[in-house]
Amino acid sequence: MKYIALLRAINVGGRVVRMDALRRHFEDLGLQGVETFIASGNVVFDSRSSNADALARRIERALNEALGYDVATFLRTDAELAAVASHKPFRATDLERAYALNVGFLAQPADAALERVVKTLRTDIDDFHVHGREIYWLCRTRQSDSRFTNVRFEKVSGRQATFRGINTVRKMAARYAGWKVPH
To answer: Are the beta carbons of 63 and 46 closer than 8 angstroms?
Structure first.
């Protein structure tokens, strides 16, 4: 099974991890076909395991031991990543006017309580859409104008997440899942 690991806390905040070292950490776990995609904590690999939760915990433990700090790991299969890339969380006109669209990856599906928390984060600049294990963040202006951050999200929600730009998500889906841009 092909998985994409979306790692939090890789090459941010002064913590630098070389991609060849990151690949070796995954290979040391017996994972096959390991590749990294850009230097921001995206690792693609094959595994015989169909238990994504157990596999994510195993990766987290190994990275903590190797790097000396917690690295939250969010796994998606190639098909799941293609579905994330295909999802249309906002109207086309809103997307055309927006500065950025980002996707937040969660370990577990959002529940009603988390959806209520996400609604409180909406502003004139930021809008959000919750869908399964993802939160789509539409930023109408430069992200530096927004008060929304991953840290703020985690503080108010009590849940960990990692965010990626939609272009990165779509490029990974195209490369590893055969996803094609819809017409």
So the answer is: no
Burial of 56 per CB tally in 10 Å (0-12, 13-18, 19+): middle
Question: How many other β-carbons are positioned within 10 Å of the β-carbon of residue 50?
Answer: 9
Q: In this structure, which CATH number among 1.20.1280, 3.90.320, 3.30.70, 3.40.50 belongs to the domain 89-177?
A: 3.30.70
> What would the pLDDT profile of 74-123 be if each residue is shown by its tens digit?
999 999 999 999 999 999 999 999 999 999 999 999 999 999 999 999 99
- The predicted model scores a pTM of 0.95
Q: What is the pLDDT of residues 119-141, one digit of tens each?
A: 999 999 999 999 999 999 999 99
78, 56, 79: which is closest to 8 by C-alpha? 56
